[in-house]
C-alpha cells in the first residue's frame, strides 16, 4: 500500500468537568491539510458545526483509501 492512499485524522479534546469535549478536528495527507476549530468549545452547536465543516472538507479530498485516526480521547495523567 502506498503512503499516498492514507489520510491521517486527529481529534483534539479537553476534559471539562469529567466530559471529553472536542475542540479541533484536523486531517492531512501528502497534498491536503484540514484544520477546523470549534468557535466556542462550551457551545454544543459550535462543536456540531465544527464537525459539519470538517466532514464537508474531508469529502472534497480525493485519492485516499484509508483513514488513520489517532488521539481520539483525552489522556489522564495522575
List keywords for this structure.
78 residues, 4 strands, elongated
Strand and helix layout:
Layout: E1 6-16, E2 19-28, E3 33-37, H1 44-58, E4 66-70
Parallel strand pairs: 1-4
Antiparallel strand pairs: 1-2, 2-3
Q: Determine the strand fraction and express it as a percent band.
A: 35-45%
> Strand sequence of the main sheet, in spatial order?
3-2-1-4
Helix percentage range = 10-25%
Query: Rg to the nearest angstrom?
Result: 14 Å
Low-pLDDT residue intervals, each spanning 5 or more residues: none
Mean pLDDT: 86
Number of helical elements: 1
- The outline comes out as elongated
Query: Which structural category fits the helices and strands?
Result: alpha+beta
| Termini separation | 39 Å
Please tally the β strands and state the result. Answer: 4
Most strands sheet: 4 strands, mixed
Give, in order, the helices and strands: EEEHE
Could you characterize what this model shows?
Strand 2 and strand 3 (33-37) form a beta hairpin. The protein is elongated. It has one helix spanning 44-58, and strands at residues 6-16, 19-28, 33-37, 66-70. The mean pLDDT is 86. The chain has 78 residues and is of the alpha+beta class. It is built from 1 helix and 4 strands. It has a 4-stranded mixed beta sheet, with helices on one face. The termini are far apart.
Amino acid at each position: 500500500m502506498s503512503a499516498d492512499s492514507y489520510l491521517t485524522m486527529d481529534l483534539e479534546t479537553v476534559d471539562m468537568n469529567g466530559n471529553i469535549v472536542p475542540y479541533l478536528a484536523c486531517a492531512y495527507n501528502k497534498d491536503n491539510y484540514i484544520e477546523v476549530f470549534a468557535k466556542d468549545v462550551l457551545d454544543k452547536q459550535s462543536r456540531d458545526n465544527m464537525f459539519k465543516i470538517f466532514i464537508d472538507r474531508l469529502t472534497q479530498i480525493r485519492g485516499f483509501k484509508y483513514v488513520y485516526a489517532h488521539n481520539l480521547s483525552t489522556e489522564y495523567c495522575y
